[in-house]
Amino acid sequence: MALSIGTPAPDFTLPTKTAEGPKHVTLSELLKTQNVVLLFFPMAFTSVCTEEMCGLSGGLDFYADAKTEVIGISGDSPFAQEAWARQERIEITLLSDYEHRVAGAYDVAYESFLPQLQLGMGGVPKRSAFIVDKNGTIQYAESNDDARVLPDFDAIRARVARL
Q1: pLDDT over 80 at 133, yes or no
Q2: CB 51 within 8 A of CB 44
Q3: By three-state DSSP, how is residue 92 classified?
């Protein structure tokens, strides 16, 4: 069961790959100046994940105006994420949780992702959304066992607007 509203958000540092090169992003550093929406997603280059990240890329002005950073997190390598972001014109910062530690800390990791395919992919993040306020407290939490179900972005925007 995913972490719940009102609990402290586990801090983390994860890598990202940008045109300028690799860098590390730390949640607690981001929270010094803004709220953060964390979007866990299963895999780059898949249809629903592409729909989610591309759809959000077109609406980032709302989050910027609300002093809120939107971060995508998956178990893909930072190099795969960068290639996907370039191909699909994704403007959200994508972080690589390659060892699935952050998905585990937020309790949103599949025990076995797509078990019917017998690929042995444990630890893959469930499609999940968290809003973390500047105090490091979770203000919104949603996690879906069905990877085809997108987060409730109307509810997320409404909560962000009240922070």
Answers
A1: yes
A2: no
A3: coil
Cβ neighbors of 115 (< 8 A, separation 6 or more) are none
Which tokens in the block code for residue 65?
Answer: 């105006």
Residue type, 28: S
Rounded to whole angstroms, the Cα distance separating 78 from 134 reads 26
Q: Within a 13 Å sphere around the CA of 85, how many CA atoms are in the beta-carbon half?
A: 24
The beta strand positions in the chain, using DSSP E, are 13-18, 21-26, 35-40, 68-74, 93-96, 127-132, 138-144
Q: State the Cα–Cα distance between residues 59 and 61, nearest whole angstrom.
A: 6
Q: What is the pLDDT of residues 55-109, one digit of tens each?
A: 888 889 999 999 999 999 999 999 999 999 999 999 999 999 999 999 999 999 8
Q: Is the pTM of this model over 0.85?
A: yes
